[in-house]
């Protein structure tokens, strides 16, 4: 997942990643600051830090750390579900003058390491094959975890659907019994009325 987004200097921006359990996640980001004189984003934002916070589905904070204007963060999920990744600058400028926009370039990779091609080229051929093989094994394991996670979600959905259908069936039976009871009661009441009025 590679993207960029704009935020204010005091604003917090969050994204949601739906992850299986026991999955390694790497994030790489770079912050650019808007220059009102050049009317463009500067290549970097020196002196500006970025708080990165990661919350797991239960609400517990898994990661909370201050990084520089660009950096790499990582974490491993131990619960399956939606993980919330939030970014906020450490700007201390007052809100009234903090009109400067920030552009954050973000690259998130799930279930794999950031691959340093220059480091691989510097190694011998045997080491390069080993590194790529380990990288491939990690990807296979990640795909397997994703499939297991999807199967879990499908199983939960199937159980929920079956329970819903069962509830609907019982409710229909209860409604039918109620209607029959009301009909019998109305017939009996009408019969008693006719008998009382000596019409039958």
From TrEMBL:
Keyword Signal: yes
This protein's UniProt keywords: Coiled coil, Endoplasmic reticulum, Membrane, Signal, Transmembrane, Transmembrane helix
Coiled coil: 119-146
Residues spanning the membrane: 168-187
Gene Ontology terms: cellular component: endoplasmic reticulum membrane
Domain of life: Eukaryota
InterPro entries: Emp24-like, GOLD_dom
Topology within the bilayer: Single-pass type I membrane protein
One Pfam family hit: EMP24_GP25L
Location in or out of the cell: Endoplasmic reticulum membrane; Membrane
Domain GOLD positions: 12-110
PANTHER family in the record: TRANSMEMBRANE EMP24 DOMAIN-CONTAINING PROTEIN
Record protein name field: TMD11 protein
Native source species: Onychorhynchus coronatus
């Amino acid at each position: 997942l590679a993207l960029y987004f704009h935020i204010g200097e005091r604003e917090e921006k969050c994204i949601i990643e739906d992850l299986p359990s026991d999955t390694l996640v790497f994030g790489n980001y770079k912050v650019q600051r808007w220059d009102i004189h050049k009317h463009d984003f500067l290549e970097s934002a020196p002196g500006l830090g970025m708080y990165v916070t990661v919350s797991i589905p239960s609400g517990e904070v898994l990661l909370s750390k201050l990084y520089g204007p660009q950096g790499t963060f990582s974490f491993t999920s131990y619960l399956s579900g939606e993980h919330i990744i939030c970014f906020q600058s450490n700007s201390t400028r007052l809100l009234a003058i903090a009109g400067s926009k920030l552009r954050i370039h973000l690259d998130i990779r799930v279930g794999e390491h950031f691959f340093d091609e220059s480091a691989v080229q510097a190694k011998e051929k045997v080491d390069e094959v080993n590194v790529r093989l380990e990288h491939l094994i990690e990807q296979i394991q990640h795909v397997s975890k994703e499939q297991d996670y999807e199967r879990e979600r499908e199983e939960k959905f199937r159980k929920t659907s079956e329970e819903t259908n069962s509830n609907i069936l019982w409710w229909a039976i209860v409604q039918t019994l109620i209607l029959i009871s009301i009909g019998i009661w109305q017939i009996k009441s009408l019969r008693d009325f006719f008998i009382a009025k000596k019409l039958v």
